From TrEMBL:
KW Oxidoreductase (keyword) present: yes
PANTHER family: GAMMA-BUTYROBETAINE HYDROXYLASE-RELATED, TAUD_TFDA-LIKE DOMAIN-CONTAINING PROTEIN
UniProtKB keywords: Antibiotic biosynthesis, Iron, Oxidoreductase
Annotated organism of origin: Streptomyces kanamyceticus
Gene that this sequence comes from: orf41
Name this polypeptide is given: TauD/TfdA-like domain-containing protein
All copies of domain TauD/TfdA-like, residue ranges: 31-316
């Protein structure tokens, strides 16, 4: 593949491919992946800011400990996940398994924890096993998505934000302990109150929350406007139709594990959700990763997705350098 020398940080120069998702060859790491990454972290981050993500090949990542060491080299702080939309398994070194999302269902474009009080500036994905088929990771530039969305779709969200409604129950959704780090009701209520999350405890012993969030944010480094939300991914119209109908029949419209609304609380029509997903589709770029690769994603500049897969797929996830959410 063609490469060009790109000088990105403090005199560093690394060879970066001209692919849609740039690839960096780290074979020169010679068994010291973390050391090589620390020496080139500025350059790698700069490429990720400019292009949304950068794929590092040649680190020979084989175990979660390898992924944890590489992730710590690329970030200043690894954060714990709270308010996640699917369970994960915590792994040694401050990293996690990928989300326990049904392997036969796509994980549509989203920004990691963009609905949470704290979200990662950097997302580091390490591929230890690809699976036997499928499971492709793709990215979409949030700046290009925003520019391509119709103005009449963007305007109300930029003005009023968007709302996320979630239901946590023993039968459905993420367990309280996984989402909030505790199942103590008083502690969960205190967390919700501290972060502007309206909440109520249901008669069935569950928790229902509603929060209003910004849909468009400024990139913390470049100041560019980015479409940064999970309006489409967590909306009921994005669900597989059979799954949606099953959930509605079992739990009703108020009992879905999650869905989204306009910032003023109005329901979202299917056409709006479809339009957002269609724009994402136009800007979706598959990542050509393989076993042992590491993907550094600028979580503000790029959304990411995962295709359905078969077989054993092991991906280690690191959430780096947390930022605090501000209101819409």
């Amino acid at each position: 593949m063609p490469y060009s020398d790109v000088d990105r940080f403090a005199g560093e120069s690394i060879p970066v491919s001209d692919d849609a998702v740039p690839v960096v060859d780290a074979e020169a790491a010679a068994g010291d992946g973390p050391g090589w990454l620390r020496a080139h972290v500025g350059a790698l981050r700069s490429v990720a800011v400019e292009r949304g993500a950068v794929l590092v090949r040649g680190l020979e990542l084989r175990e979660p400990a390898d992924a944890a060491g590489a992730s710590r080299a690329l970030t200043s702080e690894l954060m714990a996940e709270l308010e996640g939309f699917a369970p994960r398994t915590a792994l040694p070194g401050g990293v996690y398994s990928s989300s326990q999302w049904p392997p036969d269902q796509p994980m549509c474009m989203h920004h990691e924890l963009s609905s949470a009080a704290r979200y990662p500036r950097w997302l580091v994905l390490s591929c230890l096993e690809q699976g036997s088929s499928g499971g492709a990771v793709s990215v979409a530039d949030a700046r290009a998505v925003l520019a391509d969305l119709p103005s009449d779709v963007v305007a109300p969200f930029e003005r009023d934000g968007w709302q996320l409604v979630r239901n946590y129950s023993p039968l459905l959704g993420v367990a309280l302990a996984d989402a909030f780090g505790t199942d103590d009701r008083a502690a969960v209520s205190a967390y919700c109150a501290a972060h502007g999350i309206a909440h109520e405890w249901t008669d069935a012993g569950g928790l229902r929350t509603r929060q209003t969030l910004p849909a468009v944010v400024e990139h913390p480094q470049t100041g560019e406007r980015c479409w940064f939300n999970q309006i489409a991914f967590l909306n009921e119209w994005t669900m597989d139709p059979a799954v949606r109908e099953l959930l509605l029949s079992e739990f009703g419209a108020d009992g879905l594990p999650f869905t989204t609304f306009r910032g003023d609380g109005a329901a979202l029509d299917r056409a709006t959700v479809d339009t957002i997903n269609e724009v994402y589709d136009r800007h979706t770029v598959p990542v050509p990763w393989r076993k042992g690769d590491l993907l550094l994603i600028d979580n503000i500049a790029a959304a990411h997705s995962r295709a359905p897969y078969r077989g054993e797929r092991r991906v280690v996830v690191a959430l780096g350098d947390p930022l605090a959410r501000v209101g819409p």
